[in-house]
């Protein structure tokens, strides 16, 4: 269920990107694709014919409304920027309705699971009722959060960011300077490496949180405790192309109450040198941010990664990984939550006021 929730958020992001092409055929195909994917999922998980019929009828009616919108817009192109804005908002809300309908059917199906019992079954326990109420409450909270986060400004920023990315070729090469590598060299006697989790507060980070259900959605690694050698895969802050870039604390504090956690992991000097060599190799060969990998859980080239994927692969390369997992599906918080042997130590917490 959590996996589908994440995929559903990313499906929404990709759908918005296609809608932004502002082409009638693309818009219609996007509506159809989203409706079919969500309908098939609900049709599979629904247990009773009633919910299955509700799925087919509901998405059939909604698809008819969406196609009617497309036809209306083709026959009545907007004459002003205000009309264009209104039509765009209607388009996004029609897309959003596909996901609201899926959540509604999901709740009805979950309700059936709890409250429909065979004749000889025991009465529902108080804990079961509490569990159902909590499920419904979580669904409502997710919808409310999504409506607050997925504003026009957020969607526009994500679209602009997507245009800078490439998931199939290296677009960032040589962004790390000799000064950065000199700074790392000075830290090699420090017996620790530092793993950083952050809640940057950026709009893309807020959207990612809808899929992960986690507050901290960015991870970085540093060779020193003061984070002067902080590095990760990121969007480049519109200075460098998305990929492997050095980071500054300012990048992690885009909202007033942004918080970062800094954990230290004991390593040898040889392991730190090995990590440094790997970073130099990536910097020379090129890199790109694996934005499609957030959805597809796949990298199309070795140096196309996202933040936590990079941190884990770097640790693994230096034989410093403290748990085993699939690098293509690792989340930033997994770096702490999967530390079952307590190899990490909290160095400090930093909150920006």
Overall description:
With 353 residues, this protein is α+β, with helices and mostly antiparallel strands. Strand 6, helix 10 and strand 7 (304-305) form a beta-alpha-beta unit. It has helices spanning 2-19, 24-45, 49-75, 81-115, 126-149, 152-162, 178-185, 203-212, 269-285, 293-296, 307-317, 334-337, and strands spanning 192-199, 218-222, 231-234, 243-246, 259-266, 288-289, 304-305, 344-351. The protein has two domains: 2-162, no CATH class; 178-351, endopeptidase fold (from Nostoc punctiforme). A four-stranded antiparallel sheet has the order 2-1-5-8. The protein has a two-stranded antiparallel ribbon with strand order 3-4. A two-stranded parallel sheet has the order 6-7. Helix content is 54%, strand content 12%.
Largest sheet: 4 strands, antiparallel
Q: Please work out how many helical segments DSSP would assign.
A: 12
Total strand count, please?
8
Strand fraction: 5-15%
Number of domains: 2
Gap between N and C termini, in Å? Answer: 36 Å
C-alpha Rg, in Å? 23 Å
The H-and-E topology, N to C, reads as: HHHHHHHEHEEEEHEHEHHE
Shape-level CATH architecture of the largest domain: Alpha-Beta Complex
Oligomer: single chain
The neighbouring-strand order within the major sheet is 2-1-5-8
List the helices and strands and how they pair.
Layout: H1 2-19, H2 24-45, H3 49-75, H4 81-115, H5 126-149, H6 152-162, H7 178-185, E1 192-199, H8 203-212, E2 218-222, E3 231-234, E4 243-246, E5 259-266, H9 269-285, E6 288-289, H10 293-296, E7 304-305, H11 307-317, H12 334-337, E8 344-351
Helix pairs in contact: 1-2, 1-4, 1-8, 2-3, 2-4, 3-4, 4-5, 5-8
